[in-house]
UniProtKB/TrEMBL annotation:
Keywords, comma-separated and alphabetical: Metal-binding
Source species of the chain: Streptomyces nigrescens
Domain (VOC): residue spans on this chain: 4-138
Entry's family note: Belongs to the methylmalonyl-CoA epimerase family.
Keyword Metal-binding belongs to the record: yes
SUPFAM superfamilies the UniProt entry points to: Glyoxalase/Bleomycin resistance protein/Dihydroxybiphenyl dioxygenase
Protein name in the entry: Methylmalonyl-CoA epimerase
């Protein structure tokens, strides 16, 4: 069951400048940063709020580490902006299988590693009314770990 907005993924050209915009404008602080080489991103997670299911909701700021990555290609075509939304679930395996059975393309056979040790998969935007949609199961300690 999908129980929260886990994050909104925002593509940017310069992660440090974008982090500074969110800090100066809204007061959001960086909760976590990492490089995910498989996905080709350098990212910063800004925690917005905790949620009643024990998880949390974040903004995920994404800078590409290479031009041929998903975010690099998307930025070249569209410029900066909202790249994807991510729903949180305790069971990314079961929920992605159930969604695949409904005829929506799930991009990975098995979930891959996401931010803060989470397990993630993606649904094709063309099957989701133009929205690249991610499903996330957080690592058990993700709401408190840096
Ligand atoms: C592409 N399209 C999108 C889109 N990206 N539509 C909405 N939102 C997006 N973000 C559209 C694009 O305009 C094309 O439509 C069509 O899909 C095919 O796009 P393409 O440019 O030819 O690109 P593809 O097909 O090579 O790749 C698109 C997909 C790719 C979605 C398959 O981006 C992908 O595998 N994404 C999943 C991985 C990902 O995004 N990783 C970065 C975040 P027209 O022009 O033909 O109509 S990593 C992350 O979130 C992490 C680590 C985390 O949360 O922990
Ligand atoms: Co994401």
């Amino acid at each position: 069951m999908l129980t929260r907005i886990d994050h909104i993924g925002i593509a940017c050209f310069d992660l440090d400048k974008t982090v500074e915009f969110y800090r100066a404008t809204y007061g959001f602080e960086v909760f976590h940063t990492e490089v995910n080489e498989e996905q080709g991103v350098r990212e910063a997670m800004l925690k917005i709020n905790e949620t009643s299911d024990g998880g949390a909701s974040y903004l995920q700021l994404l800078e590409p580490t290479r031009e041929d990555s998903a975010v690099g290609k998307w930025l070249a075509k569209n410029g900066e902006g909202v790249h994807h939304i991510a729903f949180g679930t305790a069971d990314v395996d079961g929920d992605s299988e159930a969604i695949r059975d409904k005829g929506v393309r799930v991009l990975y056979d098995q979930p891959r590693t996401g931010s803060m040790g989470s397990r993630i998969t993606f649904l094709h935007p063309k099957d989701c009314h133009g929205v690249l949609t991610e499903l996330v199961t957080a690592a058990p300690s993700a709401a408190t770990d840096h």
